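Below is our example:
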Amino acid sequence: MTKMTKLKAATAEDITEQLAQAVHEHRLKPGAKLREDEVSEVFGVSRTVVRQALHALAFEGLLTIERNRGAFVSKPTLKEAHEVFQTRALLEPSTARAAAERTTPADIALLEQHIKKEHEALDQGQPGLALKLSGDFHLEIARIADQQTIEQFLKQLVSRSSLVIALYWQRRNALCESNAHHALVDALRNHDGTGAEDLMKGHLLDIYLQLDLREYDEGSTSLKEALRK
């Protein structure tokens, strides 16, 4: 008799990771409601586990939990959109300069791999995934700079940026342009701190200027549809 293998139940961490990825890749839109019973059904877990995941996502700033209403994908206001990019513009240029002083050949190889994956995502018509990879690229630069406090802060800012772009981009190419990332990699490779700093300033400004900072409704997507790849 063949012994049946018992499937491993999803943990709160599993659910947090999958929902976060769906948000970052814009499969779950800002303002979308996450009902506990639906999440419980999709993942086959208890509501207690679901609540742990939802609260973890709220702590990361990806969800807003409202009393007697439930959990919603965070929907940054226009004011928050301005603040997010203004703060990134203050932090990331100096981080890029610091990274240029420490970059190793292994770091360059990793960044180039990120760019390759971004291109592949765009070629396959997955702009949300390309955006997530772009955010990871920026976090890698902070890691290279060995600025751990700033890196943790940037993780939250990059998450908010993803939500801002999901709401306010005016063209589907409101992503990190490939040539901007290539230019940054070249500056890091050459240990050109001034060049890396200037390129990052211009790069973030370009993204900011591509946003249409007016509120509109993106529509809704079901949880099952959002988690389907």
